[in-house]
Amino acid sequence: MEFAAAADELYGVLPAEFTTTRKRLAGDLPREEARRLTALRRPTVPAWAVNRLVRDDAVGPLLDLGERMRAAWSDGGDLAPLERERASLVEKLVRRARELADEAGRPLSDAFADEVEETLRAAIADPSASDAVRAGRLDHPLRHAGFGPFGGTQAPARPAGTGRRTEKGTARKTREERERKEREKEARAAERKAEEAEQSLSEWETALGEARQELAAADEDLGRLRERLREAEARRADLNRRAEVAGREHDRAARAAKDARRRAAKLAHDQT
What we know:
The chain is mostly helical. It folds into two domains: 3-149 and 177-184, no CATH class; 185-272. Helices cover 77% and strands 0% of the residues. It has helices at 3-10, 18-26, 31-38, 45-55, 60-75, 80-103, 110-125, 127-135, 163-271.
């Protein structure tokens, strides 16, 4: 397996499976490529969702639209129909990303879906973001600050003489928008913390699994050693018994030989 194929496979798995899969794939690569692979970062859930869209062959029209919009912007063309197409296409892709995430067993929260949308809009506006999305190996969502029509439409100018009520309404809307953005920011921060906790849990689960495997292997080794020890002890006891028997027989044979020599000497003496 080559590095590119391993990286593509790695960024196609669930974030919770990333660490285990990375270790497995690294074991099939040469040392230098394995080192490169282990340096790859685990994707956030929104980045993973966009990577799944790429593997679903769903982002081609989006990237094509981005090229057309950037060309139209450079040439001073009419962007209105392209902006309508962008809104429809992005909405469709976010909905598809939710479906794919549900199918994979990792549903997208509203905050994560918003980051998917921001990434898709960045891919339309920015060629480098487009290339990153096309590669299908995002590890974090993308964001584009915007320029001209890519940054969003301006609010219409307030007609003259609308009075104090309009100013109050505008202030209220501004405050509500600010509060909404704060809530979204807090929700995203909470999602990121939850994701970090899940990543930590996944890594510790992997470490626990490896430790349990090593412990089981050590128990097997210990069992084999204990069995060998029991066999050695039994063999030693058998040899000890055999040595005791041989010792007694040796002593008996020695006494018999001594008696036989003594009788032979006596008979020889009597004959003389």
